[in-house]
Amino acid sequence: MQTEKIVADVEKAIRELIDIAKPEAGSIFILGGSTSEIQGKKIGSATDLDLGDKIIKKIISILAEFDLHLAVQGCEHINRSLVIEKETQTKYLFNEVNVIPHRRAGGAFAAAAFKEFSQPVTVENMEADLGIDIGDALIGMHLKNVAVPVRLSISEIGEAHLTAARTRLKLVGGVRAEYRDL
Prior knowledge:
Number of strands: 9
CATH architecture: 3-Layer(aba) Sandwich
Order of helices and strands: HEHHEEHEHEEEEE
CATH class: Alpha Beta
Strand content: 15-25%
CATH superfamily: Hypothetical protein TT1679
Distance between the termini: 39 Å
Helix content: 25-40%
């Protein structure tokens, strides 16, 4: 497994998604994933904290360029709670929960985010604007109501399946309604 290639592929996927989705400053980008799946193992079976840390550090630096908030989804053992900065939690009034993600309950990405964020907190749920899912960790439950799949030029990170999504406003009305470009 080449860590440098994995981190480079993560960067490529994120930059491509941002270029396609064109999120507004202040939007929330969600990351879900499994370092086990990246290594070609069953989700949760080979958590790699070092790999998780390298990926999180890269993502934090990329999203800062675009003034996007990062939310990192934990695994099922913490009910897919999300690690975010306290500033994001306060700004969007998300309900905080009490859990500290670690290798066996939360996963490498959530544990790394909790370590790397300046004031990490965990929240139970949210409605994010866009994100990537590395290894089918099921981020859809934390996206806004109308999620739109985005096809990227790469479909895998390491050995893990890569899914990307953006969201759009609901289209309401009927045959007479008119809509802004989405």
